Amino acid sequence: PVLKKPFWGRILACLFYDGLLILAFWLLGTFLLALLVNPEHHDLDNGITDKLLYWIFLLGLPWLFLTWFWIHGGQTLGMKAWRLRLQDHQGQAVRLGAASIRFAVACIEWLAIGILLLPLFWLIVSVAHDWSMALTAYLTGWIVVVFLTFAWSSQLKHGSLHDHLSKTQLIQY
């Protein structure tokens, strides 16, 4: 089969697919965690230990989900659906270290996009005094920036920054 760089639309579709799966795991896991941590009140707001445990869970679950699939076959469920595969630059399976670097850098990229757009959110709140309009504009701006970032990074030799730093590449087959 001919291996080629994937079109950014496929990457976004895969991201959406896997994002829905992670969201479902978060919802189920949060429910189970609330039952384990505080079965009487079903909330996680009773102490620093509960909050720390919850944040570890929120970051650990996607890391576990994504890295496990990346190192065992190079494909998440979304990647299989869109015929994408992750590999190193020699065409070999990705190792845990590279998968972890890819995950960490991608998280930092997403966080940076969110932080860069915060002034837009506060500007709309201060001018229009409308939280719903500000949130809509913020999310729209975030989606546009993500869209443009994927379009731009798909033109780079090694793809995105997280692919470059982890020495991985996303291919379409």
UniProtKB/TrEMBL annotation:
> By what name is this protein known?
RDD family protein
Database matches in InterPro entries: Pra-immunoreactive, RDD
Keywords tagged on the record: Cell membrane, Membrane, Transmembrane, Transmembrane helix
GO cellular component terms given for this protein: plasma membrane
Regions crossing the membrane = 12-37, 52-71, 103-125, 131-152
Kindly give the Pfam families that the UniProt entry links to this protein: RDD
Question: How is it placed in the membrane, per its record?
Answer: Multi-pass membrane protein
**Where, subcellularly, is it found?**
Cell membrane
- Start and end residues of each RDD domain: 6-166
